[in-house]
Amino acid sequence: MNVKKIENGVLTVSEIAERVGISRNKVWSYIRRNGIEAKEKKGNSFRFDSKIVSELKEKQSKKQEKKSSNDVSETVLEILQKQLEIKDKQIREQQETINYFRNENLTLRLESNKQRKLLEDKESKLRAISENDLKTEKKHWWQSLF
To answer: Rounded to whole angstroms, how far apart are CA atoms 10 and 36?
Structure first.
């Protein structure tokens, strides 16, 4: 009997829904939205052209592709968010390292300046002492007595 219906090219809403794998309500919604007329009408039973099956299957496959694409997009988004979190953590750690070395560099420069100043002070004292020694050496023996 199914073979005969396919040969005639007409199917009921229930048969269309079963073949496509969707509910009868979705089939009726598609029929109303697209203004599809019934090929045969017997009482409360409407029969439609079997090409509706291929149209609905195509529509369903597009929905599946879109859903699959959305799933892939969500997965990619999750991966990218995790990578972003990792990068943010790396940036924070690098910033902490930069701050640490900046402070160390400043401390070392201050220490270096302090050491240089101490060295300069020592040198100036040594120069003053040696100049003082030279002045005392130039005095005659009788000058050192008085």
So the answer is: 13
Q: Which has more confidence, 15 or 111?
A: 111
> Chain-centre distance of CA 136, in angstroms?
80
CA dist., res. 5 & res. 15, Å (int) = 10
**CA torsion through residues 62, 68, 71, 75, sign:** negative
**Does 34 fall in a domain?**
yes
**Total number of domains constituting the chain:** 1
Given the DSSP bridges, would you call strands 40-42 and 10-12 parallel, antiparallel or unpaired?
Answer: unpaired
For residue 10, give the CATH number of its domain.
1.10.1660.10
Segment 12-43, tens digit of pLDDT: 888 888 888 888 888 888 888 888 877 777 87
Mean pLDDT, the chain, as a whole number?
81
Whether residue 112 is contained in a domain is answered as no
Residues 6+ apart with CB under 8 A from 46: 12, 13, 38, 40
Domain presence at residue 122: no
Residue 41 belongs to what domain range? 2-59
DSSP summary character for residue 41: E
For residue 5, pLDDT beyond 60:
no
